[in-house]
């Protein structure tokens, strides 16, 4: 297992590589070329420069999150093949630079949705939260304003202003796209890129939908065990895999996370491990990584990964805002560092209690 932290890059992230390097047990970062737009082909020289910057700080790039997918691919519009060719060019350049894991999502319009980016908790921290009753009262083209107000001045991934400026157009693009058509478009995309992934050894790790149900009437397909298994079977390559995000799949309490881990054994290429607290169906708030602070059993989750032989990158996810830190919501240094230390402690106890043969 490689403990990592997400890093958005110089000029985009309040957290520096030097700070990440000082978190015990963290050996690398999950990063991206944050200034690129969905559909652009990444230049090898830009990837090389990013890799050199990370390595100069004593860390390594353990994966990319994300190479964003253009909506033409998700919606299956006539120009999708152009953007798939650009995606393949990006994968080739990543492979040439020795980067072998890409986390991506296939969520229409909104990559993730929250009703509050700074919900106060009893301990004085603030967290990301979701309440379906609140979301249902917000018009899709107005939600960007509510998100921006609590963004602390940072550009939120998936909520870039230029993207939100075209939201009405995006909804029109997806007007005739239901779950089945979205799934077929995902299969088409994966079948097109798999030869390149197999050539360079790049593991594609799809991120579950967040939250794990439809929002604003848009289709969602990576929401539960059944749908994930269907996707893995449809394109049955070891390079077609999953990002196990405990918070996204765990947003629906009907999802048994330990059961899902065992069901997709060998196809989990990356793990986002975080905790959340259920209030009711469609209503949750995020929590500290410590199991008893929320509703998820972090020990049981990590033990399932350990028992199944998982050895890929893990990162703590969506930390609380604590100790007066001003950062991108969910991505401050302090609570994610605490989360990394906590998860590393569990992993060490597993290694010593249940040594692998």
End-to-end CA span: 16 Å
At the fourth level of CATH, the homologous superfamily is Divalent-metal-dependent TIM barrel enzymes
The helix content is 25-40%
Shape: globular
**Overall tally of domains:** 1
SSE sequence, one letter per element = EHEHEHHEEEHHHHHEHEHHEEEHEH
What share of residues are in beta strands? 15-25%
Output the structural class.
Answer: alpha/beta
What is the alpha-carbon Rg in Å? 19 Å
Nutshell version of this structure?
This protein has 357 residues and is of the alpha/beta class. It is 38% helix and 17% strand.
Topology diagram in text:
Elements (H helix, E strand, L loop, with lengths): L1 E5 L10 H5 L4 E6 L12 H13 L3 E6 L5 H5 L4 H17 L4 E4 L11 E5 L5 E6 H4 L7 H7 L11 H4 L2 H7 L5 H22 L2 E4 L18 H10 L5 E6 H4 L7 H7 L4 E6 L2 E5 L2 E4 L11 H10 L5 E4 L17 H20 L4
Parallel strand pairs: 1-2, 1-12, 2-3, 3-4, 4-7, 7-8, 8-9, 9-12
Antiparallel strand pairs: 5-6, 6-11, 10-11
Helix pairs in contact: 4-9, 12-13, 13-14
What can you see in these coordinates?
By secondary structure, the protein is of the alpha/beta class. It has a single domain, classed as TIM Barrel (Alpha-Beta Barrel). 38% of the residues lie in helices and 17% in strands. It contains 14 helices and 12 strands. An 8-stranded parallel beta barrel has the order 1-2-3-4-7-8-9-12. A 4-stranded antiparallel beta sheet has the order 5-6-11-10. Strand 5 and strand 6 form a beta hairpin. Helix 4 runs parallel beside helix 9. The longest helix is centred in the middle third of the chain and has 22 residues. The model has no long low-confidence stretch (mean pLDDT 93).
């Amino acid at each position: 297992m490689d403990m990592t932290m997400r890093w958005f890059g110089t000029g985009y992230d309040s957290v520096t590589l030097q700070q990440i390097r000082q978190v015990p047990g963290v050996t690398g970062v999950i990063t991206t070329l944050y200034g690129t737009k969905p559909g652009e082909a990444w230049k090898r020289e830009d990837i090389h420069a990013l890799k050199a910057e990370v390595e100069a700080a004593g860390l390594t790039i353990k994966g990319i999150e994300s190479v964003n997918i253009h909506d033409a691919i998700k919606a299956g519009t006539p120009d999708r093949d152009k953007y798939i060719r650009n995606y393949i060019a990006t994968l080739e350049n990543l492979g040439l630079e020795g980067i072998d894991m890409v986390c991506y999502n296939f969520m229409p319009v909104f990559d993730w949705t929250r009703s509050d980016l700074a919900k106060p908790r009893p301990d004085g921290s603030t967290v990301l939260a979701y309440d379906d009753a609140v979301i249902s009262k917000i018009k899709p083209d107005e939600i960007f304003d509510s998100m921006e107000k609590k963004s602390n001045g940072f550009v939120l991934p998936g909520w870039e202003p230029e993207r939100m400026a075209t939201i009405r157009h995006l909804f029109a693009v997806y007007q005739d796209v239901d779950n089945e058509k979205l799934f077929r478009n995902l299969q088409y995309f994966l079948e097109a890129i798999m030869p390149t992934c197999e050539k360079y050894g790049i593991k594609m790790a799809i991120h579950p939908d967040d939250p794990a149900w439809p929002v604003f009437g848009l289709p969602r397909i990576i929401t539960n065990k059944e749908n994930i298994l269907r996707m893995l079977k449809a394109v049955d390559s070891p390079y077609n895999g999953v990002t196990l995000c405990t918070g996204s799949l765990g947003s629906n309490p009907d999802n048994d996370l330990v059961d899902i881990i065992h069901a997709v054994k060998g196809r989990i290429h990356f793990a986002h491990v975080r905790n959340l607290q259920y209030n009711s169906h469609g209503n949750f708030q995020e929590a500290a990584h410590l199991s008893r602070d929320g509703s998820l059993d972090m020990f049981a989750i990590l033990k399932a990964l350990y028992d199944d032989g998982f050895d890929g990158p893990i990162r703590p996810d969506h930390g609380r805002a604590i100790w007066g830190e001003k950062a991108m919501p969910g991505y401050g240094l302090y609570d994610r560092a605490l989360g990394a230390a906590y998860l590393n402690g569990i992993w060490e106890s597993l290694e010593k209690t249940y040594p692998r043969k």
